[in-house]
């Protein structure tokens, strides 16, 4: 197509000068001004800002209309009269499927609001033909009020557009790029803090390992702590999940690099963190089972519904109790004190009490990775048909630790190779994780067996039988995945990547 | 992209009014539409208040589609652009007679718009000429307004014969009755007779209406100033029928 200049938008020098601009345009054009249209835009996102980070905006502009924008272009509108909190509360359509993909189990929460007052106008030539379209957008959001002028060129009327641009130049500041809802949210500082990316922890390869562990552990604990309010308010199950992941990572970090920190401190921290994490185990198990509800229902044939309903009623009431207990604990002074003590201890300056403490981080981590790989390799080689499920689980835990260790220090390694390796590890972990899940689910359901409740026991027996069959099949898959992973090439890769550096200073203490 | 030519060998049958209103409804339905005013009188351009450039550019019209691009103008309506007519278009026939492969020239040029438009509407001048041959080859539908009178019937038959003689596919021709005065017995009888004889007629008829004449006064499609009037409803219905044809 022939070249058409882009629509341009400028902030007004003086918020109130829109009428003056229209008067100046009237010297060369006839102007048609539409009545101002007022709208309130309420924006929604999940706690992790999945929509914002993927260039989507979910916005409610009238009482019942939800609109989804992608790159500032409206892609779908859904009317809904009932309150919505998750993607599944919306009716079928593009908006729902996008939210499903982007937000998953996350609740959709109001994050910001903008009040817009838009006055559109037309510029006509002497034939009364529209030659330029324009609008003033006044925006009130966050702590600021701004007014913008937009002029849109029309094909074939470039000269008229240029003339209008010349006329308004004296009243506007420099033009802005990408004017739209996203721009307005940013320019009015309307976004909550979580929409800004968290500061990245900077670990240098020469940093002393104790210092690095302390910095990382503090950041991880703080990250976990961000979820506390969401867990207490029970907004969605992901708050608890992320809270637990945060704690698991800190505990893994401290376990993997325990020799980097003072002995007494590490013992105290590990004990404290274990107590805190333990308080949420039961609630997470119940959440997982409830989230899998549909899958369990599909497993059983018709006739088992009553038993399943009874089971879910029981689990739901248990969850309610357990959630209250967790919320009470997290809101308690005891918890606050415990977590503060841990954070304070970790935030202290390094003491360099252990022989490893002052060693450079990269060398320590490399040696540790190699050591863990070799341990896992020998564990894997020992697996045969007689190996207990417990030993397979142990190997799963080792895989998790290995992955965490790489992820903690991922920036210290060559990007392409380390991500390829992580992908390989994740593949095995998924298979081993599924195997573990079946075991956990069987144990979980077995605990609800009550022979005085016939329907319930019938449903449980059915589920356990099916899960047991899946467990047997998954064991074969898990063993095959281990064989696929532990190849000669993988051992060479580990030796090359993590064994090459001189270890003389690191010693045998890792 | 589909191409509809509003064509009749006869003048004053409502070609321009049809082009303007059909283009308007097509654009309103969401189709990216380009109206090309091939009639040097420039009536459809006038109805959209679009003036041509002062340059004599008619002789470049059949050179390449890029030559046309420069002359596209936005209408006042979303999705609707126009290439206004220029007086130099009156020389199209002599221009085409000097060109090789003149019959397929227009088709090749219009192909260039494939990515940017869903529909091109050609408002054609009333004649049988090299230009009209080019139009017949370029169009998916040749939309023919027919006033239900004896003379118009004769002209319509001449057009069909011309198509037969030159072996253009007759299925391209779609017609409708225009400027209908249902109180006239001649109109009634002609509609009845022609509808039975020819299967090319759409169901919708466009009434003879002062509102259509007022398009010149308002310089706009009928919907803009006579929304609830029969003429406007008729054009809306006519577009619905054409839209179905385009889809099929």
Features:
heterodimer; A: about 500 residues; alpha+beta; mRNA Triphosphatase Cet1, Chain A; CHAD domain; 3 domains; nine-stranded antiparallel β-sheet; globular; B: about 250 residues; alpha/beta; Rossmann fold; eight-stranded mixed β-sheet; 12 helices; about 15% strand
What does this structure look like?
The complex is a heterodimer of chains A (510) and B (248). Chain A is an alpha+beta fold. Chain A contains 18 helices and nine strands. Chain A has three domains: 8-187, mRNA Triphosphatase Cet1, Chain A (Alpha-Beta Barrel), CATH 3.20.100; 198-357, Alpha solenoid (CHAD domain); 359-510, CHAD domain (Alpha solenoid), CATH 1.40.20.10. By secondary structure, chain B is α/β, with parallel strands linked by helices. Chain B is built from twelve helices and eight strands. Chain B has helices at residues 15-28, 43-47, 65-69, 92-97, 102-111, 130-138, 150-165, 185-197, 210-213, 215-218, 222-225, 230-247, and strands at 2-6, 33-37, 73-74, 80-83, 119-123, 141-146, 173-180, 201-207. In chain B, helix 1 (15-28) packs across helix 12 (230-247) and helix 5 crosses helix 6 (130-138). Classes of the chains: A alpha+beta (510), B alpha/beta (248). The interface between A and B is medium-sized, with 10 and 14 residues.
| Percent strand of chain B | 15-25%
**Which architecture of the largest domain in chain A per CATH?**
Alpha-Beta Barrel
Quaternary arrangement of the chains shown?
heterodimer
Biggest interface pair, counts: A-B, 10 and 14 residues
Write the SSE topology.
The complex is a heterodimer of chains A (510) and B (248).
Chain A: E1 8-11, H1 18-25, E2 30-33, E3 37-45, H2 50-53, E4 56-60, E5 65-70, E6 73-79, H3 94-103, E7 109-124, E8 130-141, E9 144-153, H4 158-168, H5 181-187, H6 209-225, H7 228-233, H8 237-256, H9 263-278, H10 281-291, H11 293-299, H12 305-331, H13 333-347, H14 361-381, H15 389-408, H16 415-446, H17 454-485, H18 488-498
Helix pairs in contact in A: 6-8, 8-9, 8-15, 9-13, 10-12, 12-17, 14-15, 14-18, 15-16, 16-17
Chain B: E1 2-6, H1 15-28, E2 33-37, H2 43-47, H3 65-69, E3 73-74, E4 80-83, H4 92-97, H5 102-111, E5 119-123, H6 130-138, E6 141-146, H7 150-165, E7 173-180, H8 185-197, E8 201-207, H9 210-213, H10 215-218, H11 222-225, H12 230-247
Parallel strand pairs in B: 1-5, 1-6, 2-4, 2-5, 6-7, 7-8
Antiparallel strand pairs in B: 3-4
Helix pairs in contact in B: 1-12, 5-6
């Amino acid at each position: 197509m022939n070249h058409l200049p882009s629509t341009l938008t400028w902030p007004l020098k003086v918020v109130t000068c829109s009428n003056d601009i229209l008067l100046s345009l009237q010297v060369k054009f006839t102007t048609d001004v539409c009545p101002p249209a007022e709208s309130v835009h309420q924006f929604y996102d999940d706690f992790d800002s999945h929509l914002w980070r993927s260039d989507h905006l979910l916005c409610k502009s009238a009482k019942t209309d939800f609109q989804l924008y992608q790159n500032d272009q409206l892609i779908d509108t859904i009317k809904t009269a009932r309150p919505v909190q998750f993607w599944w509360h919306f009716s079928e359509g593009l908006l729902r499927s996008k939210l499903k993909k982007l937000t998953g189990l996350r609740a959709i929460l109001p994050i910001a609001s903008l009040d817009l007052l838009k006055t559109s106008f037309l510029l006509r030539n002497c034939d009364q033909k529209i030659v330029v379209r324009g609008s003033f957008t006044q925006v009130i959001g966050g702590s600021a009020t701004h007014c913008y002028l937009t002029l849109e060129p029309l094909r074939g009327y470039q000269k008229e557009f240029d003339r209008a641009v010349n006329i308004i130049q004296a009243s506007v500041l420099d033009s802005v790029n990408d004017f739209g809802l996203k721009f307005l949210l940013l320019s009015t500082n309307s976004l909550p803090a979580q929409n800004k990316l968290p500061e990245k922890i900077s670990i240098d390869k020469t940093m002393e390992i104790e210092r690095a562990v302390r910095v990382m552990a503090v950041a991880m604990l703080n990250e976990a702590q961000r979820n506390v309010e969401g867990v207490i308010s029970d907004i969605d199950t992901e708050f608890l999940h992320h809270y637990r992941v945060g704690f698991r990572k800190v505990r893994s970090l401290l376990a993997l690099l325990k020799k980097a920190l003072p002995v007494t401190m590490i013992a105290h921290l590990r004990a404290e963190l274990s107590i805190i994490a333990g308080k949420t185990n039961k609630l997470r198990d119940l959440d997982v089972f409830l989230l899998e509800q549909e899958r369990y229902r599909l497993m059983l044939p018709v006739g088992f519904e009553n038993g399943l309903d009874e089971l879910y009623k029981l689990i739901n009431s248990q969850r309610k109790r357990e959630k209250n207990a967790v919320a009470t604990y997290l809101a308690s002074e005891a918890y606050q004190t415990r977590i503060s003590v841990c954070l304070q201890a970790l935030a202290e300056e390094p003491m360099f009490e252990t022989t490893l403490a002052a060693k450079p981080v990269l060398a320590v981590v490399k040696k540790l990775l190699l050591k863990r790989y070799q341990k896992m390799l020998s564990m894997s080689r020992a697996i045969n048909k007689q190996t207990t499920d417990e030993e397979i689980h142990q190997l799963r835990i080792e895989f998790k630790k290995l992955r965490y260790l790489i992820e903690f220090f991922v920036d210290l390694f060559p990007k392409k190779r380390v991500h390829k390796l992580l992908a390989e590890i994740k593949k095995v972990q998924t298979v081993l994780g599924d195997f573990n899940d079946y075991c956990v689910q069987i144990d979980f359901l077995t605990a609800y067996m009550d022979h005085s409740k016939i329907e319930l026991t019938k449903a449980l027996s059915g589920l356990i039988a099916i899960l047991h069959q899946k467990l047997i099949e998954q064991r074969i898959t898990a063993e095959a995945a281990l064989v696929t992973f532990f190849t000669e090439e993988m051992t060479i890769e580990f030796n090359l990547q993590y064994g090459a550096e001189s270890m003389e200073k690191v010693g045998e203490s890792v | 992209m589909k191409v509809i030519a509003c064509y009749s060998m006869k003048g004053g049958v409502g070609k321009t009014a049809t082009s303007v209103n059909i283009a308007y409804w097509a654009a309103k339905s969401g189709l990216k539409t380009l109206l090309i005013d091939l009639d040097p009188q420039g009536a459809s351009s006038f109805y959209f208040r679009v003036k041509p450039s002062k340059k004599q550019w008619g002789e470049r019209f059949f050179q390449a589609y890029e030559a046309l691009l420069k002359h596209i103008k936005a209408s006042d309506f979303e999705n609707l652009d126009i290439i206004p007519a220029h007086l130099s278009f009156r020389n199209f026939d002599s221009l085409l007679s000097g060109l090789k492969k003149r019959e397929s020239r227009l088709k090749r040029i219009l192909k260039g718009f494939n990515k940017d438009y869903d529909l091109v509407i050609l408002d054609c001048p009333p004649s049988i000429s090299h230009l009209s041959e080019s139009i017949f080859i370029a169009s998916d539908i040749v939309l023919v307004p027919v006033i239900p009178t004896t003379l118009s019937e004769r002209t319509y038959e001449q057009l069909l014969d011309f198509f037969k003689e030159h072996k253009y596919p007759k299925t391209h021709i779609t017609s409708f009755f225009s400027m209908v005065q249902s109180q006239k017995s001649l109109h009634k009888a002609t509609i009845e007779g022609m509808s039975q004889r020819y299967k090319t007629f759409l169901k919708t008829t466009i009434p003879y209406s002062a509102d259509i004449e007022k398009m010149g006064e308002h310089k706009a499609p009928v919907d803009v100033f006579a929304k609830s009037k029969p003429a406007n409803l008729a054009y809306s219905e006519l577009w619905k029928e054409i839209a179905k044809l385009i889809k099929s």
